[in-house]
């Protein structure tokens, strides 16, 4: 358990007036990223600006047993964040959490009640792309998602994130409480628009008058978030305990880099995030596209090709000159031309990303990044491929990336070992793999996932030709040689 008395000298402790914090933000998804990003920002404001914006943390994933929330409660709602770079580390203890709730221990009703407290001005989320019950190819609500089907039948006992938010909005309106803003901090282009879509479209199916109320009174600001935060493993926790002088089961490690770009569109106020390093802008989309395509897109390329080649971490990929060159070329030659971003030195940005990827203190596993591919491909690669098809330009590394994903979800690595596929569509992927022969038949079976590839890409002969070329190359030569040939 975290013990403030045992922490090393120089640790930043929450010496501000914690009882004075008000529960003004309800956040869904108390994962490693949120703990090291948005919560740290709030902690800086409490310490340096006497901010009173505190958090209620909520876990609603049915698979989550609440162990993290229970551990947080046992150590007075405190946890540590350690920034790691090669040869240095810096730890702070975050103290802005006022309450922590989880589905199986507290129930959805208590979580909805927490959202209906008068002080609540913002509901935020880091639940990953799959938590929004949407179709990545369109950004619209998936009405056939099991949780949405449940919520339509039982709106007063919601199961999904959109359903829970909707239930709270409905209750607040009935109680004459002011509206809040809903802020997604997940890696989706125009994540505010996606969140608005799923909430409004679900409301339209339940109660059209409520949908009109949301359109008029609730805002859904978009954000772009960036910080590399590896998943904590047993080995990482053991190493962290040694460094801290005590255990911290809620502790997290991350890189020093921090970026948060926020659309300044809030109906009930907001923290002064700009005083803790965030940027408040009118339009987040150019920043989102730059980060999703250059950072996340190259991360996914390294993840699938790295895992297939036997590289465990992103920093291991950086030790291979061909992989390093491929990542940088993807960013500058195939992703940068597709962007609407202006006033940014994209070469300097790419070089900064490569430097971050080389940080060996951060053990960012290729397998971790490779999860949930069906939710990530559209915004990281496929929209860029559409741009190149429309402009008649080359997209060799993007095609290689999609081929590597297909190779990965086929379920066997280059050494013949089973690959465990963690993806919301894992059952459908396994079915299509099992029913198709290796090669062109496999490509066709996976391309027919319209919720991922849409209706246009499967019908593009130019796309299919480059995809087939690289898929066959991966089968014949393996990932390392395929990368070498792709970069020329």
Describe the structure using short key phrases.
alpha/beta, 488 residues, globular, 3-stranded mixed beta sheet
What kind of sheet is the major sheet? 5 strands, parallel
Neighbour order of strands in the largest sheet: 5-2-1-6-9
Shape call: globular
- The average pLDDT is 96
Distance between the termini: 53 Å
Write a structural description.
- With 488 residues, this protein is of the alpha/beta class.
- 48% of the residues lie in helices and 12% in strands.
- The chain has helices at residues 32-36, 38-49, 67-74, 103-106, 108-115, 146-153, 161-174, 191-206, 208-217, 234-244, 285-309, 314-318, 321-335, 346-357, 366-369, 373-391, 396-409, 426-434, 440-447, 450-453, 461-477, 479-486; strands at 22-28, 53-59, 79-85, 88-94, 97-102, 122-125, 134-135, 140-141, 181-184, 223-226, 252-254, 259-263, 279-281.
- The strands form four sheets. A five-stranded parallel sheet has the order 5-2-1-6-9, with helices on both faces. Strands 4-3-11 form a three-stranded mixed sheet, with helices on both faces.
- Strand 3 and strand 4 (88-94) form a beta hairpin.
- Helix 7 (161-174) packs across helix 8 (191-206).
- The longest helix is centred in the middle third of the chain and has 25 residues, at 285-309.
- The chain is globular and about 65 Å long.
């Amino acid at each position: 358990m975290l013990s403030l008395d045992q922490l090393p000298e120089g640790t930043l402790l929450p010496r501000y007036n914690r009882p004075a914090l008000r529960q003004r933000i309800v956040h869904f998804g108390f994962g490693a990223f949120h703990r090291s990003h948005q919560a740290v920002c709030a902690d800086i404001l409490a310490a340096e600006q006497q901010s009173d914006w505190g958090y209620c943390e909520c876990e609603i994933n049915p698979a989550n047993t609440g162990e993290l929330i229970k551990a947080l409660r046992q150590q007075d709602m405190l946890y540590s964040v350690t920034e790691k770079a090669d040869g240095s580390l810096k730890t702070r203890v975050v103290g802005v959490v006022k309450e922590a709730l989880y589905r199986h221990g507290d129930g959805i009703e208590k979580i909805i009640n927490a959202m209906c407290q008068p002080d609540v001005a913002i509901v935020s989320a880091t639940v990953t792309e799959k938590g929004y019950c949407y179709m990545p190819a369109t950004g619209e609500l998936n009405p056939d998602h099991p949780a949405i089907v449940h919520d339509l039948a039982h709106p007063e006992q919601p199961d999904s994130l959109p359903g829970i938010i909707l239930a709270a909005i409905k209750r607040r309106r009935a109680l004459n409480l002011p509206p809040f803003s809903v802020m997604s901090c997940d890696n989706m282009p125009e994540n505010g628009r996606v969140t608005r879509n799923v909430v409004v479209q679900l409301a339209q199916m339940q109660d059209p008058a409520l949908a009109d109320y949301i359109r008029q009174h609730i805002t859904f600001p978009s954000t772009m978030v960036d910080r590399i935060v590896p998943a904590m493993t047993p080995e990482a926790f053991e190493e962290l305990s040694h460094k801290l002088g005590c255990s911290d089961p809620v502790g997290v490690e991350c890189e020093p880099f921090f970026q948060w770009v926020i659309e300044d569109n809030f109906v009930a106020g907001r923290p002064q995030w700009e005083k803790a390093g965030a940027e408040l802008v009118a339009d987040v989309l150019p920043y989102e596209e730059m980060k999703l395509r250059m950072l996340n897109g190259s991360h996914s390329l390294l993840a699938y090709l790295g895992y297939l080649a036997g590289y465990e971490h992103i920093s291991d990929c950086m030790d291979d000159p061909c992989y390093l060159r491929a990542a940088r070329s993807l960013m500058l030659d195939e992703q940068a031309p597709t962007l609407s971003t202006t006033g940014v030195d994209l070469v300097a940005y790419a070089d900064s990303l490569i430097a971050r990827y080389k940080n060996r203190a951060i053990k960012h596993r290729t397998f971790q990044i490779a999860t949930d591919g069906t939710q990530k491909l559209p915004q990281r690669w496929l929209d860029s491929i559409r741009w190149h098809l429309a402009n008649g330009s080359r997209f060799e590394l993007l095609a290689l990336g999609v081929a590597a994903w297909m190779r990965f979800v086929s379920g066997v690595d280059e050494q013949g070992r089973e690959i465990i596929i963690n993806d919301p569509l894992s059952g459908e992927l396994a079915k299509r793999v099992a029913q198709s022969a290796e090669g062109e038949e496999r490509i066709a079976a996976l391309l027919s996932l319209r919720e991922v590839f849409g209706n246009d890409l499967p019908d593009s002969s130019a796309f299919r030709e480059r995809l087939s070329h690289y898929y066959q190359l991966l089968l014949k030569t393996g990932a390392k040689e395929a990368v070498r040939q792709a970069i020329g």
